[in-house]
Design brief:
Length: about 350
């Protein structure tokens, strides 16, 4: 008789690597698609896909960004927030990379666990100077990749819900690295995120399309190396370095000019350079705008009728829809970055 496996035990049979061994964890991610990667692919255009294919085939491991203070602070606080989540929701901290039904669909949720009905749960933890509440219609959360990341984690693990826990801080780095920014609230904030099967299906299509491109590139179905493009790319990098120095020098001279002229009236001088200066002038300009308060006060009955009519019209209009075609243009994207000297082999990537 086959032994019973809880959903959590079954998930552990699909473990691939642990981030405690970062190089092995990064190598294990190379041949598949992770939550962060599929979110970037879904948001970006063909250029994002091409860039990710190149990175994976180059054999380069992802850059360790823990030297950046906001990344390091997130890592420090993740341990505390993970312990809080475990006490509150019985979801254990996780560092394991899991594979899905498709073994190249990969994810490392920040926490995994089960509810009282033995339904599998995952957790994602973030820190930010912004309020990351997913319920805010126009909040900062909407500008991030977090929603797609969680849906992908749900897809890979088979979990039913994802707990999103976040800690907002005051962005005061004056004591860094001895002291980080202070949390805005005494405890982390959280919300449950349910599975969105429609979005998951879209992300699966995005991921599988990328994997086809990755396999074709690995099989050699890519353009031959273009020496001229490489030379032009190197020139861009060289000029970019001198451009930065020139801009800093220009900005310093511009600031010095402004400081010399700020207290002078209008000024003009022609030598090797023509310098003209006009100081700022503040003047009061009167314009006419509608006075809503006065209009309502003059005829409150008319205004009340207008409000009622508008509400009735909006309710009526909601019952009528029609299909409208629209187009979205993904702009061309060119990136040129220096290649790292050290390269790692690409054998046994897949």
């Amino acid at each position: 008789m086959k032994a019973y496996l809880s959903p959590l035990d079954e998930l552990m049979t699909r473990s691939v690597a642990s981030s405690t061994d970062r190089p092995a964890w990064l190598r294990a991610r190379t041949g598949g698609v992770t939550a962060t990667e599929v979110a970037k692919l879904a948001k970006g255009g063909p250029g994002v896909q091409a860039e990710l294919v190149t990175m994976k085939l180059s054999g380069e491991l992802e850059e360790d960004l823990s030297h950046l203070r906001y990344i390091r602070w997130g890592q420090i606080r993740e341990e505390y927030i993970g312990e809080w989540v475990e006490r509150r929701f019985n979801i254990q901290p996780n560092q394991v990379l899991f594979r899905g039904e498709n073994p190249r669909h990969l994810a490392t949720p920040d926490g995994v666990g089960c509810d009282f009905d033995e339904r599998l749960l995952v957790c994602e933890i973030k820190t930010s100077l912004h309020d990351l509440d997913p319920a805010l219609t126009f909040g900062h959360y909407r500008t991030t990749l977090y929603a797609d990341q969680k849906q992908w984690q749900l897809h890979v693990t088979g979990a039913q819900r994802a707990l999103f826990a976040w800690e907002q801080h005051d962005d005061d780095w004056s004591g860094w690295p001895d002291r980080g920014p202070a949390p805005v609230l005494p405890e982390p904030e959280w919300r449950w995120v349910e599975r969105d099967e429609e979005r998951i299906a879209h992300l699966v299509k995005v991921a599988d399309r990328f994997l086809v491109a990755l396999d074709e590139a690995a099989a050699g179905k890519v353009a031959e190396f273009d020496v001229e493009l490489d030379v032009l790319g190197q020139e861009v990098i060289q000029h970019r370095a001198s451009e930065g120095a020139a801009k800093r020098a220009k900005d310093a001279s511009w600031k010095a000019l402004q400081e010399r002229l700020v207290l002078l009236p209008s000024f003009s001088q022609s030598g090797a350079a023509r310098v003209t200066w006009s100081p700022s002038v503040t003047e009061v300009v009167t314009s006419t705008v509608p006075d809503d308060e006065a209009a309502v006060e003059a005829d409150p009955v008319l205004f009340a009728a207008f409000v009622d009519a508008r509400a009735a019209w909006e309710a009526h209009l909601a019952g009528f829809t029609k299909p409208v075609e629209s187009s979205r243009v993904t702009p061309a994207k060119l990136t040129v970055t220096p290649m790292k000297v050290e390269k790692k082999g690409v054998a046994d990537v897949f």
